[in-house]
């Protein structure tokens, strides 16, 4: 029985350690994210989408129902990181910048499908393809946020919007 | 049950309630499987608290109700860690805590592919009275469960379990295949098992209205699992196998409900298993822990 209790305690301790390491990792990654602003934009990930993926057309283009459905899906799955109005949150960058709004719908769909796993964005292919396109429709309907509209396309972001791509390495 | 173990259980129970009702829920999009795993991991920083229950019939013995509580945490986008506490009640016998498990799943590839592998490593510390039947392995058969709880709990198992999960999603269908290898650390041979699963949401397109009963919130499917013998006698002889339809309901409020009637496919299997489960996904748990250790607010 002693060994059983020791094992249980060990497992609880190990689980606690994994939580702490993960939390610490998040802090350290957030610091690393600031350094990234010197060089690369987090939005450069969009440019990694293959040509074939970019060329895909949104089957719900100009469909207001898709935008309405996409809004609900966004609130359920994306707002937690990217903010309620996609303005950027604690963990995710703003999606209301020219880099995203001017990107091909196929590139946004590709990012949703594949995630950016090493930088913290999970794979969303568990959402069926039509739902991912509905989310793309909603994101594209938002346009560039007013504060960003008059400025040139962002090549770097303030630290807080780097978070999603840097927190969970 | 020793007082320390009771304390740990009470602490985890209180902790679960605190977390479930004090943190923001996240809408889960969970698969409906009970045994099979697909390649989707927990979202980073989210904690899912789950309770699962299995009612099983037993030829030559009393029916039983086994249950487990699961804490699933998305450590990163490529690593999910889970802690389980198991127990069971055998009708006309007793109720007891049967052990715990610590499971980790890793995603080795950065992007989606036609087939997506996940590596799974688990440590189990359980006694012989464990009846959760979370997987089929080796030559496990129905008659192994006939011993009384008092007898069965004397047997202690420390086990390492490895799985290769291969999963694909095509046109809304998820197909997954899990190959299992388990080793009891007390000088037993490697045992093998499998699990197969297929599932599909009732609708692929989301509704433009907020709703609990929209078809896209329901995922139906089927899973099949069983043992494949051990290193000395690999194969299907003296193994048990099950086929189970599964249904999952992902509520917008962050709750997920699952139900699955399972049927034994041969004489070595329990004839009937009824499983159900409830899960709640909590967003921002990682941030909460991070703040506790001096992270950003």
Could you explain how this protein is built, in words?
The complex is a heterodimer of chains A (169) and B (297). With 169 residues, chain A is mostly helical. In chain A, 59% of the residues lie in helices and 0% in strands. Chain A contains 9 helices and no strands. In chain A, α3 crosses α7. Chain A is globular, with a radius of gyration of 19 Å. The N and C termini of chain A lie far apart (39 Å). Chain B is built from 3 helices and 12 strands, in the order αβββββαβββββββα. The radius of gyration of chain B is 19 Å and the shape is globular. Chain B has 297 residues and is mainly beta. Chain B has helices at 3-22, 149-152, 285-292, and strands at 47-56, 64-76, 79-90, 95-106, 116-127, 156-170, 173-184, 191-201, 218-230, 241-250, 255-264, 272-282. In chain B, β1 (47-56) and β2 form a beta hairpin. Chain B has a 12-stranded antiparallel barrel with strand order 1-2-3-4-5-6-7-8-9-10-11-12. Chain B starts with a helix and ends in a 5-residue tail after the last helix. The model of chain B has no long low-confidence stretch (mean pLDDT 90). Helix content of chain B is 11%, strand content 47%. Chains A and B meet through α1, α3 and α7 of A and α1, β2, β6 and α3 of B.
């Amino acid at each position: 029985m002693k060994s059983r209790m020791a094992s249980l305690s060990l497992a609880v301790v190990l689980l606690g350690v994994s939580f702490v390491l993960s939390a610490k990792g998040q802090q350290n990654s957030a610091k690393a994210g600031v350094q990234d602003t010197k060089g690369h934009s987090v939005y450069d990930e969009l440019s990694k989408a293959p040509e074939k993926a970019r060329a895909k057309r949104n089957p719900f283009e100009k469909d207001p129902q898709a935008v309405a459905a996409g809004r609900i899906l966004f609130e359920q799955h994306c707002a937690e990181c990217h903010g309620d109005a996609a303005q950027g949150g604690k963990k995710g960058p703003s999606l209301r910048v020219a880099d995203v709004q001017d990107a091909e719908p196929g590139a946004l769909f590709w990012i949703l499908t594949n995630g950016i796993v090493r930088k913290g964005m999970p794979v969303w292919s568990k959402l069926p393809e039509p739902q991912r396109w509905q989310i793309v429709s909603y994101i594209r309907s938002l346009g560039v946020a007013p504060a960003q509209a008059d400025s040139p396309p962002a090549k770097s972001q303030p630290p807080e919007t780097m978070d999603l791509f840097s927190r969970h390495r | 049950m020793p007082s320390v173990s009771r304390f740990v259980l009470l602490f985890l129970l209180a902790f679960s309630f605190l977390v479930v009702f004090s943190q923001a829920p996240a809408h889960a999009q969970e698969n409906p499987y009970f045994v099979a795993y697909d390649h989707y991991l927990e979202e980073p920083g989210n904690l899912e608290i789950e309770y699962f229950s299995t009612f099983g019939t037993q030829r030559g013995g009393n029916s039983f109700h086994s249950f487990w509580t699961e804490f699933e945490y998305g450590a990163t986008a490529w690593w999910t860690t889970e802690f389980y506490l198991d127990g069971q009640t055998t009708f006309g016998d007793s109720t007891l805590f049967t052990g715990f498990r610590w499971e980790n799943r890793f995603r080795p590839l950065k992007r989606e592919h036609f087939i997506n592998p996940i590596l799974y490593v688990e440590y189990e510390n359980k006694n012989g009275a464990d009846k959760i039947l979370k997987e089929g392995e080796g030559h496990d058969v129905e008659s192994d469960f006939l011993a009384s709880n008092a007898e069965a709990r004397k047997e202690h198992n420390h086990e390492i379990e490895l799985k290769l999960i291969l999963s694909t999603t095509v046109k809304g269908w998820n197909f997954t295949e899990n190959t299992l290898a388990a080793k009891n650390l007390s000088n037993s041979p490697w045992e093998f098992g499998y699990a197969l699963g297929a599932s599909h949401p009732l609708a692929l397109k989301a509704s433009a209205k907020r709703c609990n009963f929209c078809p896209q919130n329901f995922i139906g499917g089927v899973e099949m699992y069983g043992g494949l013998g051990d290193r000395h006698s690999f194969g299907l002889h003296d193994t048990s196998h099950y086929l189970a339809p599964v249904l999952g309901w992902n509520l917008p409020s962050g709750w997920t409900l699952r139900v699955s009637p399972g049927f034994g496919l041969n004489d070595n299997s329990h004839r009937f298993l009824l499983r159900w489960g409830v899960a709640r996904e909590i967003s921002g748990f990682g941030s909460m822990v991070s703040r506790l250790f001096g992270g950003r607010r």
